[in-house]
């Protein structure tokens, strides 16, 4: 079989450029010649990275080659197609082989060879098949046909799953296993473990030796919902997500939660924040992670506080002023590129320690890659079409079969749940705005969302039970005024508010008059204003402010002496000393906010005023921290080399390669290198080895091989006289030294760096 180096030399420049573009890790750092490139090509981590992009059919082709021993001898393409069976059309096999050869995972199209490094990635049991046994497939099939039901079930279980199992010799199964071993259908690995030979598994599997062949991704689970339905639902959810995060930001600003000493936000505080807005803790964790990633909240030491608190930055006000569409686009773009995993918040790590939101333990470096992988699978469907949860899981498994099933499940669950909460997907389908977000800029995504949203309305439905229904998205001015005078009960396509005495008083505290409240409802209600609402507004307005509080520490004044009497009695019942100065004036040493809270809890409706008599709003103002906002670094692939740069690199490698003489044992093929080294050690011959260091540079060593063990060569460095260890995977060529080289010593030779320890 040709060596890796020979195979590279046979490629033309455009094929080498395509290889370097498909496997960019081969160019970092730039290889000095084709010998170094050959060494990297079969390096385990590089091969694993190349195989991560393969789909299920690619892996099945490689598994078939492994079963056919393609790492030892060339396999004719016709034999491969026959082994795969009729479910693998010739066109699909040819396409797969071409794609695999472009990644240097196979060599040749008509006579196919597979590097041994690929076999190592496929594992000990490629396609669930063990090493060959003593029987032929025909003999194994005849022996299996004569088994009883108990013995046959054991063989079938091992043939369709892991071909290895343990047994208790004293049990009934153990006795059946002994009979199978005696018949050559099983073999002992140790005293308690048996293994199913390859031929037996092939006999049981019949015409599907590597299982059902899947050339295309599963088509099951695709559901067409309609583009307008998906876009409209996702758009409304996007607006709801923006409102939710704005509310979260406001809650953090009014009552900043403490930061943990180890970093992050404690699970108890996370649940408190979630309860304030009626969400679950996982949604709350997503929100705070996004706010932190956007630089809208940070942990800081406020004045007169000994502990750090999570507080909004001054940039939070700019975010709150953004339109719904622009705010969503910024949130969604941040989420796609977020290198954090909010879904793990509240769970436990391997040490059974609780994982807190905003803590370093939630780091997820592959987050942007994995999210885009899942969203891209949905983007491949027709607009308006989605996948059921099982359909998406099956497609993910086909697209990325080398990932462990539990890892795929975690990625899917986190991505779909978070994308749904943010309005990127709806009904398992990617919205038009979500598609634009993947391919274009956040500004373009905001435009797409605006097109999907219904026109905002400026009318509401006021009902007799004092609820107010917004039949769609409200214009910003009406939404702000309604949020000031009513409490939000439920959000969605029809948002429901409720007017209460406390909510009306909140509007009056903010300086709104009762006349303005009446005018708002009468101007925007489609159903008229119930008499009960007018009475409520007038009642709160009539009682509001008849009792005034100011600072003395605090003073109380009212034109009604009876109210002063009632206030003094209520305060005394709570243990607060209030002293009358005149029939309509009293003072107290209690702070103004404290006395206001107690009197309102007693049923009074006092108003706060300053020294000039103007009304004061005692509502806690959101905290802000001044800090320069750090621009979000969106995820992107490392910059790829241009075609001109890759062609220049190929030209340099070919020029350097022409200066290296072709010698026996060279070529970068692992089996020939091992054979040459073992032969040199057995006959005590000196050899030159070409060694790739950590920087990719090619270094030649004059060595007397002593022993060749798994992964390591132990030899005497002839130029230094020292015994050194060499990692076998870094030896890219071996050549026999002539007599002049073998007699060389170290005098006058330049220093060489030590090889990597094995």
Automatic annotation (TrEMBL):
Pfam families: Helicase_C_3, WYL. InterPro entries: WYL_dom, XPB/Ssl2_N. Residues 460-582 form the Helicase XPB/Ssl2 N-terminal domain. Residues 673-734 form the WYL domain. This is Uncharacterized protein. It comes from Nakamurella multipartita (strain ATCC 700099 / DSM 44233 / CIP 104796 / JCM 9543 / NBRC 105858 / Y-104) (Microsphaera multipartita).
């Amino acid at each position: 079989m040709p060596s890796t180096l020979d195979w590279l030399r046979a490629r033309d420049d455009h094929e080498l450029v395509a290889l370097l573009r498909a496997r960019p890790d081969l160019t970092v750092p730039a290889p000095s010649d084709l010998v170094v490139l050959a060494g990297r090509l079969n390096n385990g981590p590089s091969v694993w990275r190349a195989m991560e992009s393969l789909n299920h059919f690619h892996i099945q082709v490689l598994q078939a080659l492994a079963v056919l021993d393609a790492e030892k001898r060339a396999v004719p393409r016709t034999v491969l197609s026959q082994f795969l069976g009729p479910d693998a059309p010739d066109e699909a096999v040819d396409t797969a082989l071409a794609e695999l050869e472009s990644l240097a995972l196979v060599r040749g199209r008509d006579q196919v060879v597979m590097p041994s490094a690929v076999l190592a990635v496929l594992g000990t049991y490629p396609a669930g098949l063990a090493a060959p046994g003593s029987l032929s497939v025909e003999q194994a099939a005849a022996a299996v046909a004569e088994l009883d039901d108990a013995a046959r079930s054991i063989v079938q279980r091992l043939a369709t799953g892991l071909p290895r199992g343990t047994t208790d010799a004293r049990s009934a199964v153990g006795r059946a296993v002994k009979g199978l071993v005696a018949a050559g259908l099983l073999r002992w690995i140790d005293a308690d473990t048996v293994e199913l030979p390859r031929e037996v598994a092939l006999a049981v599997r019949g015409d599907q030796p590597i299982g059902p062949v899947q050339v295309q991704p599963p088509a099951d689970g695709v559901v067409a919902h309609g583009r307008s339905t998906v876009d409209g639902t996702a758009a409304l959810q996007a607006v709801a997500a923006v409102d939710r995060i704005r509310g979260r930001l406001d809650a953090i600003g009014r009552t900043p939660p403490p930061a943990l000493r180890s970093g992050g936000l404690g699970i108890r505080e996370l649940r408190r924040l979630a309860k304030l807005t009626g969400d679950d803790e996982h949604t709350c964790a997503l929100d705070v992670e996004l706010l932190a990633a956007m630089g809208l909240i940070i942990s800081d030491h406020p004045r007169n506080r000994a502990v750090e608190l999570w507080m909004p930055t001054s940039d939070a006000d700019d975010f709150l002023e953004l339109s719904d569409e622009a705010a969503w686009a910024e949130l969604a773009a941040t989420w796609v590129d977020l290198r954090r995993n909010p879904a793990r918040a509240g769970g436990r790590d391997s040490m059974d320690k609780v994982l807190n939101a905003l803590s370093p333990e939630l780091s997820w470096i592959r987050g942007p890659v994995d999210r885009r992988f899942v969203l891209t699978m949905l983007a491949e469907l027709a607009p308006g079409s989605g996948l059921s949860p099982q359909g998406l899981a099956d497609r993910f498994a086909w697209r990325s079969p080398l990932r462990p099933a539990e890892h795929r499940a975690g990625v899917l669950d986190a991505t779909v749940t978070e994308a749904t909460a943010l309005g990127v997907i709806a009904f398992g389908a990617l919205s038009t705005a979500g598609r634009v977000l993947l391919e274009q800029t956040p500004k373009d995504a905001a435009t797409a969302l605006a097109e999907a949203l219904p026109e905002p309305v400026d009318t509401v439905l006021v009902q007799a039970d004092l609820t107010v229904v917004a039949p769609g998205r409200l214009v910003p001015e009406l939404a702000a005024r309604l949020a000031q005078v009513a409490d939000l009960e439920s959000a969605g396509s029809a948002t429901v508010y409720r007017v209460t005495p406390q909510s009306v008083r909140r509007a009056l505290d903010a300086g709104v008059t009762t006349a303005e409240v009446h005018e708002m409802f009468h101007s925007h209600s489609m159903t008229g204003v119930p008499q009960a609402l007018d009475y409520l507004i007038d009642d709160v307005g009539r009682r509001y402010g008849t009792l005034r509080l100011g600072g003395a520490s605090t003073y109380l004044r009212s034109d009604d002496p009876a109210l002063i009497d009632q206030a003094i009695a209520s305060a005394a019942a709570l243990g607060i000393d209030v002293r009358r100065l005149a029939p309509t004036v009293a003072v107290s040493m209690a702070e103004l906010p404290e006395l206001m809270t107690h009197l309102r809890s007693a049923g009074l409706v006092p108003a706060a005023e300053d020294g000039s008599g103007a009304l004061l709003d005692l509502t806690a103002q959101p905290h802000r921290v001044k800090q320069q906002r750090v621009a979000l670094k969106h995820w992107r692939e490392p910059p790829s080399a241009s075609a001109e740069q890759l062609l220049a690199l190929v030209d340099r490698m070919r020029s350097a390669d022409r200066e290296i003489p072709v010698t026996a044992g060279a070529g970068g093929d692992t089996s020939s290198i091992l054979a040459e080294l073992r032969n040199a050690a057995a006959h005590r011959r000196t050899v030159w080895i070409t060694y790739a260091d950590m920087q990719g540079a090619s270094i030649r060593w004059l060595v007397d091989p002593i022993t060749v063990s798994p992964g390591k060569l132990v030899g005497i460095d002839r130029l230094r006289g020292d015994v050194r260890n060499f990692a076998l995977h870094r030896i890219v060529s071996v050549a026999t030294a002539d007599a002049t080289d073998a007699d060389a010593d170290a005098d006058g030779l330049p220093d060489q760096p030590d090889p990597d320890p094995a």
